[in-house]
Amino acid sequence: MDRPNTERKALAVNLDARRYGSFAEIGAGQEVVRWFFRVGGAAGTIAKSMSAYDMSVSDAIYGECDRYVCRQRLEQMLQYEQGLNLERLSGSRGDTTSFFTFADTVSARNYHGTNECHGWMGIRFQAHPRDQDSEIIIHVRMLDTENSLQQEALGIVGVNLLYGAFFLNHEPDMLIESLLDNLSTRRIEIDMIEFKGIAFRHVDNRVMSLRLVQLGLSNAAMFSADGEVLQPSEVLYKKPILVERGSFRPVTNVNIDMINSAKETFAEEEGVDADQVVTLAEITMKNLQANGEIDLRDFLARVDMLAACGMTVLISDYFEYYRLAAYLARYSKKKIGITMGAASLVELFDEKYYTALDGGILESFGRLFKNDLKLFIYPLLDRETGSLTTVENLRVAEELKTLYQYLVDKGCIEQLQNHDPDHLSTFSREVLRQIHANDLNWKSHVPQQVADLIQQRGFFGCQRVVSVPVAEDRRAPVAAPILAPAIPSNAITPTNVVG
């Protein structure tokens, strides 16, 4: 479907007699409102346009703030300006007008080119006259190298956001897709979006975060255990970071033991403050798309289980570990750790995954370890022999043994010694098969809160339990559960082990 260009979008807003509101922009000029003045008819749309560039002036209007390009300042602007609109105008025209406030606070390229080029942008609006407010907030990164081009891109994104809020609020997927109309991902990255309010009461922001990555508007998206959408730079800024990559179908005791063991070991590293460590459960798009199209129920099942375990979730398009490492290093100069199983480490040393790099596997490892990154390896149990595959006895190709040993000796790869041996016999594929077969032994391989969630919601084809009695012995079948029909799930997804 052909979408209107930026000029036509701005004009469509101006010609909509229901819309009336304010623009408040800090930094990078009045780039969004300029479009609406330029196309004509702005008197029917714009109640006020302003910019509080001076920090003292900004504080006097919106209240004090630690940083001026941040979410807190944007929300202060939206709340204050929309409050004024309703206070001053609702009495005279509230029955026929849907009021809105658009705001942004942006740091475009400075004269020396030394600053982070990013910004917060949002709109608070009434979908209908006298309606409760709804809101969309986004965080953008400007990728152009010239200030004037960054300003131009910001203006276009702002118009797209306004147009989407007014005309596409009933189709949030299409709204997200339209944000880069007349632009490209080479110019703008949108790494966070959040919908709030009555117009978006049925929107799950975790799914919207996934859409950002799926559509290529961002390479990664993040949200907290309580479902709040997070902006990566604000979470990771100057923090030590520890990541566990997995399929989490389901979340098992091994997943939890691996991250806990790695965090304990990671905290002993020089310069790592245990209280500052950010732990992430990462799922790659390649893993989510292992069976073709993304199954949203399957995606949300994984996320809900991780949330039940208190985990912050990162969805990324960084299948290669060196790309993930570069992404994390963008936000923090502190130490970065990645924990993985021994089987994943074997895959990491498979040269077939690096044919696209001119320097092959050497270039990959050069990128991976250049920022003081460290791998923490969880052992693999051979249940037939009882032997463990560890860093010390891991088999790699003959021509890579010297490279492997060099990385081990240099301390880039470390064996986790503090794991719980009771969990080594747990394999997620087997647990998933047991769930499908209604073999209740699966419950002994997952945390209690995960087991309850799987049963209550029928995840992965499990027969739903309307009420789950508390059993003293988790390894014994729960007595007389009340079963409901199972919710179908995708076929078993292979664990993503490659970097």
From TrEMBL:
InterPro entries: Rossmann-like_a/b/a_fold. SUPFAM superfamilies: Nucleotidylyl transferase (SSF52374). This is Nicotinate-nucleotide adenylyltransferase. It comes from Rubripirellula amarantea.
